[in-house]
Amino acid sequence: MSAPVVLIADDDPLVVSALVREARRVGLVTVTDTTSQHVQELARQHQPAVIILDIQQHEDGRDLLARLKQDPQTRDAKVVILSGVEDQYVRHVCFELGAETYELKPVDSTFMSRVARMALEQCPQG
């Protein structure tokens, strides 16, 4: 079976590049979007097991999260929210909208390993 797909959506190309490197290191296939304009389209096309979504992009990440979770083609993907700011209200709203987890930037060294476990749980092999 092929490796799980992870969609990484962040408006900072350096963050995306670092996350892609780490994802590949743990055996994940990556699809990226640095504009937030194509996340839902990419999710429909590639059916990622996990979507890593920066909450503060050109479009409010909460609106995008809500659309992803309402769309029958993308609602089953686990969504990991990334944020540069700790905000308990935003965290709560994200969980209410269906986020799997809420992580602060910079992420720690175990982040992508945890994402890989989530992805494998979504797409069990064999």
Commentary on this structure:
By secondary structure, the protein is α/β, with parallel strands linked by helices. 42% of the residues lie in helices and 20% in strands. It contains five helices and five strands, in the order βαβαβαβαβα. The protein has helices at residues 13-25, 39-46, 61-70, 88-97, 111-122; strands spanning 5-9, 29-33, 50-54, 78-83, 101-104. Strands 2-1-3-4-5 form a five-stranded parallel sheet, with helices on both faces. The longest helix has 13 residues, at 13-25. It is globular, with a radius of gyration of 13 Å. The model has no long low-confidence stretch (mean pLDDT 93).
What about the largest sheet? 5 strands, parallel
User: Which architecture would the CATH scheme give at its second level?
Assistant: 3-Layer(aba) Sandwich
**Cα-to-Cα separation, first versus last residue:** 7 Å
CATH class division: Alpha Beta
Which class of secondary structure composition applies to the elements? alpha/beta
CATH superfamily: Response regulator
Number of strands: 5
